[in-house]
Design goal:
The structure is a homodimer of 208-residue chains.
Chain A: H1 2-5, H2 9-33, H3 40-47, H4 51-57, H5 61-85, H6 94-104, H7 108-120, H8 124-149, H9 158-175, H10 182-199
Organism (chains A, B): Actinomadura rugatobispora
Protein name (chains A, B): TetR/AcrR family transcriptional regulator
Domain HTH tetR-type (chains A, B): 16-76
Chain lengths: 208, 208
Amino acid sequence: MTTQALPREPQQDRSRATRARLLEAAVGCLASVGWAGTTVAVVAERAGVSRGAAQHHFRTREELVTAAVEYGSDVRTARMREHLDGLAGRRPSTLEVLTSLAEMYTSPLFRAALQLWVAAASDEQLRARVVPLEAKVGREAHRLTVEALGADESVPGVRESVQATLDLVRGLGLADLLTDDSARRSRLLRQWAATLEPVLHRSPPPSG
Amino acid sequence: MTTQALPREPQQDRSRATRARLLEAAVGCLASVGWAGTTVAVVAERAGVSRGAAQHHFRTREELVTAAVEYGSDVRTARMREHLDGLAGRRPSTLEVLTSLAEMYTSPLFRAALQLWVAAASDEQLRARVVPLEAKVGREAHRLTVEALGADESVPGVRESVQATLDLVRGLGLADLLTDDSARRSRLLRQWAATLEPVLHRSPPPSG
């Protein structure tokens, strides 16, 4: 079996790389020019891929764009997990976790996802595709946040506080859409970390 | 002066009523069909106003739509203020305030505003118009929330907690865009009220 599969691998690698380039270009395109300007042709050009090759991977922009948001979300989640693992066993502070989450929800990926969600709000066919994606992305963000905070969801109120934290950072993503909201966001996250710690039975990091 | 002004009043009233009909139709149109489908002609038809009359009030859809979101926000704010005044001096509970806010941010007005903000993210000219509007709407929502909660912003952390509450309800508005999120939202707001009360030095309502 391997002898048959081997010669095909370089081509499969190339195909996978082309696909990834298209997905990354689609996230950037959505985030900067919005849903209306994001077509397979425009994304192919941004990615430096021929229109034919792009259409071989994605027949419609609905297909391309939902795949792009899913891919971007997987990459972001993996990167945040790596960052947490890179702390080498040191427990991240509540504020570190909140800051990582806020970075995720003010990134081009969030702007791209927002364009897709808002387009789906007035397009039934797109909505049918986006609702399961939104649920999947939301579940993964929740799981990652629970792990990062070391939250015990069997304690009453903890699950709702983790959910509220995620809704809060989504609201912060929205507040950063048209203007730079970073200074206000930093103050707000410090306060939220202090408020959240007793609910999660976490202690603040040792000062000094 | 009054004798000259009098004969014009019925016409001014009609003109004001036409304008209000157009603004209300524009909010409904944006919320249901989105930015791309919201033109002056479509809104005029929804409002039962001739295209010429509509164009007399609003030359472009940018003008119409920003005026509509501002008008809708003024109406909503006034309605929430009336509701609070209607409590006849009784202090609303934290949860009552949060529930009113969440209603505002899951209403067609929020969906309309979201369509406008997201369209402005990839349209420089529209952004220049929307940024001051977003700031104004945000300031009014903040002022109303401070009043409703009786929050003392000179206490450290209170201002940030009020801001976080507004970012949270905006996040909840987003979470309700594609699916009915009301059951989860109710649980989450109860927990948020309990978390917020000690920060605001408010006591929970007497039980029983």
